[in-house]
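INFO batch 0412 | record 1 of 1 | parsing
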Amino acid sequence: MSRVVMVTGAASGIGAGVAAHFISLGDQVIALDMDGDGLASLAGRLDNPNLLVMTADVTDDMQMERALADAAARFGSPNVLVNNAGITGGPQATTLHATPPDLVDRVFAVNVRAVIRLSAAVLPAMLERRRGVIVNISSIAGLVAFPGRAAYSISKAAIIQITRTIAVDYGHLGIRSVALCPGMIDTPMTHWRLSQPALREEVLARIPQRAIGTVSDVVAAVAFFTSDAASYCNGAAIPIDGGYSAV
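INFO prediction complete | emitting tokens
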């Protein structure tokens, strides 16, 4: 039976890969992102009536309410939510005392508040069905703090706690939540670093597996944890990092 799946940050990288996976299964997919051109490109590549692309800022409550209402009118309420949208804060988001307060607020608005708000919005329908899955894309930065990336690391750790909270409060009501914690994955966001041989070697030297992850690695994890095969997996934080967090 097909599901209704909502994916944020779906215009490129992991989010686009996740959206394409669910479309391939015959699910109905709502793909959200601020990048309208990226969403148009995704829609062109997939060319499927089961895909609904919506340009929206996950930090804007009015835009998200409108997106949820439009999505419900088209497909119904989501059975699966993949909270993938996230930002690092850019080059100014460094150590705790050096990061401008407004930038800290922006990182938390995207990486934490939006996850809470969107999860809260889809939970009532999931509770009515007594079935639903919320996958939150965290990071190994939520498990092992990244030097000079205070706001990002703290926000990604918060996502793990959101995941645990959902599992504890709603697990007995048929809701599952899992946090996936990717390490260095080759996406448009990281490709600038990985395309430079010296920087790539620097990254590889810190990964026991000596390999860079791919979007497919994360998509495979999303596929498993949203499937019935993972029905007893709830509240976990799963590294996808080639062993980085094990060191």
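INFO post-check: Residues 101-129 form the longest helix (29 residues).
INFO record closed
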